[in-house]
Amino acid sequence: PLVLGIETSCDETGIGIVRGRTLLSNTIASSMDEHARYGGVVPEVAARAHLEALEPAIEAALAESGVTLTDLDAVAVTSGPGLAGALMVGIGAAKALAVSLGKPLYAVNHLVGHIAADILDPDAPPLEYPTVALLVSGGHTSLLLVRDLTTDIELLGETMDDAAGEAFDKVARLLGLPYPGGPEIDRAAASGDPAAIRFPRGLSRASDLAQHRYDFSFSGLKTAVARWIEQRRAAGEEVPVADVAAAFREAVVDVLVTKALAACKDHGVPRLLLGGGVIANRRLRDIALERAEAAGVTVRIPPLSLCTDNGAMIAALASELVMSGRAPSTLEFGADSTLPVTEIQVAEAEEV
Ligand code: ATP
Ligand code: MG
Ligand code: FE
């Protein structure tokens, strides 16, 4: 099926067009620059930017893929989770498009979309089930057991406080690096020594593991970094930015990979899929690949351009739903800013 996907859950206006599992176009307009001076995404600014960016983004995606609106078999849209106002802009546009074209509409979960990005990788063999999935983004850090992308996703664990991406953004700010912090920390860490400082690994003690084997916590780590920097400054010493960045990144990556591989082992699943914007982190990809190989686990990493928010992953998920014969969504849905990852599609119509 030929599917156009609309993604507006945060600060990226993403329009993607896929045919089956083939990516035809992936247009992204970001309002990141407008938020940078506030040190984070401002919801009203994001919503207005989506409103302005949507139409040109759709035009560009159609032009790039050489298809017209009437060629489409379905329209897909992110219904949540995300910023309510931002989501509503995309939902409104998707409903208008689907109704005016007389095409089925699929309202899907943004987080599952991050996982679905994987199936667009032209070089990867078909996805096998079950697979453990590690989802690390700006707002979420979750370990999932995916038995089927379109029907059965189990939440094994998630962060108890900050998301990993959020931790990167906050620590970047502590170090005086600009927003978004992930890429900045990655860059600064390149010349640092990850072993220079030992920062804590959240929820990793034996006593924590009993209750929170697959859960994460990054706020203690952030506080530890803040305190370490403070002490340095109080002593009149310079803060070694590269070393702090490298040691912090190592702590995050270590706990993410350790817990993901524990889930693989416990469930007897030799497959690990990575998804979400933080997967852009070099060290995370390297350590995951290295330790997984030693553990006999195959790692799948979507193309980097599909790891951060985009419309193609939304179209890809809807395409899977169409191919597995699922009914489209009714128009009876709105933005759900806290949609759980287990809800793959919302407002699915009764089979007719
Ligand atoms: P969610 O998907 O949970 O709603 P989101 O859509 O805002 O959140 P993504 O766009 O998937 O999140 O990812 C953005 C996050 O990824 C930001 O926190 C950013 O700092 C982080 N990030 C981007 N590149 C890197 C990197 N190289 N290393 C670490 N983090 C990174
Ligand atoms: Mg974003
Ligand atoms: Fe996202």
Automatic annotation (TrEMBL):
Q: Which cofactor does it need?
A: Fe(2+)
Principal subcellular localisation of the protein: cytoplasm
Q: Which SUPFAM superfamilies match?
A: Actin-like ATPase domain (SSF53067)
Chain ranges of the Gcp-like domain: 23-315
**Pfam families recorded:** TsaD
For this protein, the record's InterPro entries field holds: ATPase_NBD, Gcp-like_dom, KAE1/TsaD, Peptidase_M22_CS, TsaD
Q: What is its EC number?
A: 2.3.1.234
Q: Which UniProt keywords apply?
A: Acyltransferase, Cytoplasm, Iron, Metal-binding, Transferase, tRNA processing
Q: How is the cofactor bound?
A: Binds 1 Fe(2+) ion per subunit.
| Entry's family note | Belongs to the KAE1 / TsaD family.
Q: Which PANTHER family match?
A: TRNA N6-ADENOSINE THREONYLCARBAMOYLTRANSFERASE, TRNA N6-ADENOSINE THREONYLCARBAMOYLTRANSFERASE, MITOCHONDRIAL
Question: HAMAP family annotated for this entry?
Answer: TsaD
UniProt protein name: tRNA N6-adenosine threonylcarbamoyltransferase
Gene that produces this protein = tsaD
